[in-house]
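Run log // design_07
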């Protein structure tokens, strides 16, 4: 009788053990990559919110005639007399107009308004810094308003005599 060539039980057990180790290793790598992709996706959402907020605020500031600090945030006066108010409520930056209200960012830590380097409230401002807190860090977004000479003179008159009416108030 001819002897058949085959694997022994020990050889099959060793092969099965090696295969299971390789499968477990591959499974852990796939799980790690999925968690890393999820973290990157969350970071992308925050960065997209920051980019959108930057575009909206920059557009509003450039179109407005003056920017004024308020206790809750800042207010932009438009040429047609309308006002856009940006306020922080429960860590979210809200944009309020006469027609609508929008939530722009959900992780706002602070909003600081300055006039010529000095922190101000209820006063025209030439620089706004919004600090956004993410999981890993804080990011500061800074906006600058450039005023024409006529508006600067009106602001200076207002600073000297608060009862003087101006177009930028």
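design_07 sequence
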């Amino acid at each position: 009788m001819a002897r058949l060539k085959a694997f022994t039980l020990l050889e099959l057990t060793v092969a099965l053990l090696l295969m299971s180790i390789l499968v477990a290793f591959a499974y852990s790598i796939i799980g790690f990559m999925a968690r890393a992709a999820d973290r990157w996706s969350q970071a992308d959402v925050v960065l997209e919110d920051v980019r959108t907020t930057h575009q909206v605020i920059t557009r509003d500031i450039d179109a407005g005639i003056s920017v004024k600090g308020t206790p809750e945030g800042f207010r932009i006066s438009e040429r047609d007399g309308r006002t856009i108010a940006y306020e922080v409520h429960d860590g979210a930056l809200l944009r309020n107009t006469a027609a609508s209200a929008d939530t722009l960012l959900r992780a706002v830590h602070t909003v600081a308004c300055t006039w010529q380097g000095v922190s101000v409230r209820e006063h025209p401002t030439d620089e706004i810094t919004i600090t956004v807190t993410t999981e890993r860090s804080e990011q500061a977004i800074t906006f600058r308003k450039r005023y024409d000479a006529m508006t600067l003179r009106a602001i200076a008159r207002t600073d000297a005599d608060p009862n003087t009416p101006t177009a930028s108030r």
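The CA atoms of residues 110 and 131 lie 5 Å apart.
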